[in-house]
Amino acid sequence: MRALKLLLCLTFLVFGFAATAQDTPVREVPLHVDPGASSVRPPEETTPAIEARPTTGGAQTLEDILRRQRGEKVDDQFRRDAIGDPARAAPPVGPLGTLGGASDAEVFRSLRYGSANTTVSARGPAADVVIQDGGMWWLGFRRGPLLEYGAYFLGGVIVLLALFYLIRGRIRIEGAKTGRTVTRFKAIERFGHWLLAVSFILLGLTGLLSLFGRAYLIPAFGHDVFSSLAIGSKWVHNNVAWAFMIGLAIVIVAWIGHNLPDKTDLKWIAKGGGLFTKHSHPPAKKFNAGQKVIFWAVVVLGLSISASGLSLLFPFQMPMFAATFTHINDLGLPQLFGYAPLPETMAPHEEMQYAQLWHAIVAFVFIGVILAHIYIGTLGMEGAFDAMGSGEVEEQWAREHHSLWLDEVKQKQATDAKAQPPGATPAE
To answer: Residue 291 has what pLDDT?
Structure first.
């Protein structure tokens, strides 16, 4: 026991002396300056040299890690090339000969950077992609900026609409109601509108659930509940999409002729459509300038979201972004704004990732537009919902908001009445 105690004491003495020797500075800085000295040189500060790649055995350096943390581009060519060499494999009869010329890490790198000679039994455009390292930027954007700025945008739209209602209030029918109604939309028009509207609401709700569910619903309700919701939402989203596209086609065919711009739109815009002041309703045809903006937004956004949706419904079968980026680069648009050319060659998974992001971004904008449309068609304006509810609107409402269209309807009714023979019963 005494020998063990003596050995421990000697050990502490040796290591204590070594630590003291290491902690002793090589050069001491004087605490005072000699008045007789002509000049004083401050202690030199040495900057640690950047770690060279050979000192790490070809692995990452500290500078690589710091650049990645700062979000800067890191040259990883040294890792892309480190995938082994079959020619270096030892002969089968030699030591470790059965391991080949590539280690597990080197095989992993070749799979990660897409340089491995992969053979698969499945047939498909992306079947041989085992690891898609380039998708990490997409995952980060989807989990971060897409959710954050999308939520801010929709929240901002709701706040603005609420403020507008508090300031302006509901837009009432100012004149005396006549008790007479005018047919505004036929049954086929209302069918196309409601088919488009109901399908869009279902798509919007299920899409937001799929996008935000993992971040917010799983912590609140657990994995099992979210799993059932996600599976159901996916089924609804994929199948209701067809109803949306059919409704969009009906609306375009029915109303595109009435939504072409004309000079009356300038007067409507100059007066703000009468939305901000009372007793200032500008003349308008069947659709005013504001409704035309909504119509063309629905057409452009609807066609765009349908195209990206079809690309997602049929994975790897409808690539569109590489060709689109090529046309954009040919026009010189990225260079005009100081950006590098967009990628013109993409892996199948990259096409799908761009399609998903574009689908979500367009959906956020689309939902914002439709929120404004729903507001003005229900709470924001008296008598507006009747146009799509029953198809009949109060004549005074039509005179205040669509006076030129009402004049056309009245003129047509008078012409039809003159064309009927005496004693004939008007058609219902």
So the answer is: 96
